[in-house]
Amino acid sequence: MSLSQKKTLFLIVFAQFSCTSVWFAVNAVIKQLAETYHINPNSIGFFTGVIQFGFIIGTLIFAFFSIADRFKASKVFLFCALFSALSNFALLIPGNTYWSIAILRFITGICLAGIYPIGIKIASDFFKNGLGRALGFLVGTLVLGTAIPHFFNFISLKNSLQFVIIITSTLSVIGALLIGFGVPVGPYSKQGSKFEPKIILNIFSVPALRKASFGYFGHMWELYTFWAFTPLLLTTYNQINNTSLNISLWSFIIIVSGFFSCIFGGFLAQKFSSQWVAKTSLWVSLACILFFPISIQLPTPVFLSFMVMWGMFVIADSPQLSTLVAQSAPIVYKGTAITLVNSIGFLLTIFSIQIMNSFINGLDTYLPFIILSLGPLLGLYFLNKKTSSS
Predict the structure, then answer these.
(1) Which of 135, 175, 195, 347 has CB 3.0 to 4.6 Å from 18, enough for a Cys bridge?
(2) Domains of the chain: total
(3) How far is CA 232 from CA 78, 163, 348, 357, 359, in A?
(4) What averages of pLDDT result for each successive group of 10 residues across the chain (390 residues)?
(5) What is the CATH number of the domain that holds 230?
C-alpha cells in the first residue's frame, strides 16, 4: 500500500467513523430523551426501526437513480453527512415530540444512505487488491461510530442528551469536510454510468453476486438487532442476577470489540479468503445466539467475556461480505449494487428488530434467539452453495 493510499484510507476511515456516530445516538440516550420529551422509554425498538427504514428508502432512491455511479461519490458523501448532522442536532429543539423525533430519525436514516455504502464505494475505487483489508478498517470504524455514543453517554457527568447529540453532530460535519475536500476520485472509479432503472432487475443475475448478497442478508438479520438490544441484554442480566453492570460502559465495550475483529479479519482474508472469514464468523455468531439464554446464568466475568466475543464475531464477516459483493458486481454499476444490497439487508433488520422488540420482557427465553439464528443459518447456506464463478 502506497503512502497516498494510506493517507486516503485514513481519511475515509476517520470520516466513516465520524459520520456514522449519529446512527445510534438516540439508543445511547433513550432514557434521557424520554425524560426530556415525556415519551415512553421503551421506544428504542421503534426509533431504531425508523432510522433503519429511512436508510432503506434512501438506499433504494440511490440505487434506482444509480447516484453512486453517476455522480462524484465524495460530493454525495459531503452533502448527505452535512444534512445528517443537521437532522441529528435538531433532536435538541425544545418541544420535540414522539413523532417529530421519529421524523428526524427517518431523515437521518435517508442521509446515512449517502454515507455508509458510498464510503464502501469510495474505498473500492482506491483498492483493487487488498480490498478485504481496506474494508476491514472501514467497517471497523462503522462499529466505532455505532458504539461511541454509549461511551459519550458514559463520560458525560450531566446533560448527557445535549453532550451526545452535539458531539456526534459535530463529528458528522468534520467527516463530511474530510471526504468532500480531502478525497479525490479513485483510480478504479467508473463514474458516469447512465440512468438505467432496469439494471436493478438484472443485478442479481450474476451468480457470485447473488451468493455474496444472500450471505450478507443473513448476516444483517442478526447484526443490528444485536447492537440495538445490547443494552437490554445487559439489563436482563442485571435483573436476573441482581447485579449493577454499567450499561453504557459495557454496551460500548461489547460493540466496539467488533472494531478489532473487523481489522483482524481483514488480515486473515489476505491469508485465507474473504469467504472463509465470513463463514467462520457466521458459525461462531450463530453459536453465541443460541447460547445467550444459558449465558445469563453464568458468573459476571464469564458472561461479559461471552458478550465481548459475540460483539466481535457478529460484525467480523461484514467487511468480507461487502468485499465479495464489490468484487462480483459489474464494475460500471458497482456503487448501485453495493447500495441495493445494503438496502435489502437493512430492510431485513426492521423485521428482526421488531420481532425482538416483541419479546422485550422475555429475553431470558429461547424463542427470540431461535428466530434470530435464522439469519446466520441463511447466510451460511448461501455461502456454501457452489456457483460457476466461485
Answers:
(1) 175
(2) 1
(3) 34, 22, 21, 10, 11
(4) 70 89 84 84 78 88 77 89 96 91 94 87 74 77 79 74 90 93 72 59 78 92 88 89 89 89 88 91 94 92 96 92 84 75 85 82 77 92 72
(5) 1.20.1250.20
Q: Are 274 and 324 in contact (CB under 8 A)?
A: yes
* Residue span of the structural domain in which 123 resides: 3-183+204-383
- State the Cα–Cα distance between residues 85 and 168, nearest whole angstrom: 8
pTM of this prediction? 0.77
Q: What one-character DSSP code corresponds to residue 220?
A: H
Task: Dig out the grid coordinates for 140 from the structure.
Answer: 471497523
Spell out the long-range contacts of 203-209 with Cβ–Cβ below 8 A and sequence spacing 24 or more.
203/329, 203/330, 203/333, 203/336, 203/337, 203/340, 206/328, 206/329, 206/330, 206/389, 207/387, 207/388, 207/389, 207/390, 208/324, 208/328, 208/387, 208/389, 208/390, 209/325, 209/328, 209/329, 209/337
CA trace torsion 292, 296, 299, 305 (10° rounding): 40
